[in-house]
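Data availability (excerpt). The following record was deposited with the supplementary files.
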Amino acid sequence: MNPTNPNIKVEEADAVSGTKQLGLETVTLNARSPSEIDAAFEQLLNVKADAIITGTDPIILDRREQIVEFASRQKLPTMGFVRQFAAVGALLSYGPSISWMYRQAGDYIGQILKGANPAEMPVLQPTQFELVINLKTAKALGVTVPPTLLARADEVIE
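Predicted structure:
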């Protein structure tokens, strides 16, 4: 997670809550730059992590290939917050559609350029979420993806 992201506390609390329900332990590692991400990798190895879940952050998204390449070398299943993670080799991703968010931003910019007052425009929350499963990665990790999960996926990378 990027410790400067204002959502970090909520995301961390959600992760801890979810892992406790599954009887698992959470280790939170913070990184704001490529070198700090590399340092976090060393910490992951020291604690013998079984998997990686990324926090939502533009820096983390920008460094997705670095994260997924490390995870692949270490045979660690990885979940990212947008489809771009699964597209570069993470086991799966689940989160809002970035394409949808960019279209909404474009619509808003168009309205503003036509004279709309930004202060009067509603704040939108994502309404479209995507589950993407990378079966090539699942095979490389020796993970069997249940057919029910595959059926719910918005995209399956084979």
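Summary of structural features: The chain has a mean pLDDT of 94.
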